[in-house]
Description:
By secondary structure, the chain is mostly beta strands. The protein folds into three domains: about 40-120, no CATH class; about 120-180, Type Iii Antifreeze Protein Isoform Hplc 12; about 190-245, SH3 type barrels (Roll), CATH 2.30.30.760. It has helices spanning about 1-15, 40-55; strands at about 60-70, 80-90, 95-105, 110-130, 145-150, 165, 180-185, 190-200, 200-210, 220-225, 230-235, 240-245. The strands form three sheets. Strands 1, 2, 3, 4 and 5 form a five-stranded antiparallel β-sheet that branches. It has a five-stranded mixed barrel with strand order 8-9-10-11-12. Strand 8 (about 190-200) and strand 9 form a beta hairpin. The longest helix has 17 residues, at about 40-55. The chain starts with a helix and ends in a 5-residue tail after the last strand.
Amino acid sequence: MTGVRILWVLLAGAALCAAPPQAAPAVEPAAEERVALPPLEQLQVDAVSYVEAQAAALSGKFVFHVVKPPVLQRIPPGAKLTFEPLHVSRKELGGMFFVTFRQKLDGRPLGLIRVDMEGTWTGRLLRVKAPLARKAIPEADQFEPMDFEGNPPAGALTELPAGYRLRAAVSTGHILAMQDLEVIPVISPGEQVRLEVVSGPLVIAVEALARSGGAVGDKVRLEMPTSHRNVQAVATGPGEARVQWAGGN
């Protein structure tokens, strides 16, 4: 009896000291294969992705959707139809517009197709606080930010650009747009202009009389001081212009 008890104790101790069986390694689920969308669905996904990328650099937030799916040509069984975006119909992505795609069938051109879309914009626009006169140079304290959701007016601004003045008078509550502004001229007709005449490495500065005005980068007509000959120069700053002499390198 004592021997049986000793044998039982030895067997129980061995069972307790034995290492527990290792758990079976977890089986990772197989990577799901990407399911190819039908051509029409893929075209719409591509259209939304394309305009979202175009809107990424713009202020505010856009939401896009396809207004009316296009009608695709029938393709042979097993053939692959792909789409390459070309351009958006207009710069303003709020409201109605369309995206043009080039179709390819098994890599061969199959013509163009358009996807009609609509964009909704959410952000802040600039609203005039009090009437402003024509030719006034707008300043930040003359406007108040206005929350807007929908399709903003064409060219509506979210911040004031530098170097512009009002093209015409605006009233209280007006939403400022790019078409309300014009570039501030740096040369006006009748003023004296410092003209740099460039001929190769040689630069000669003379005083000329402006016969037309313009902003930086515009061509202006100037009258030379001695010959009274008119030349066209490029406005480079307030009261300054430059011309490349015809005989220069």
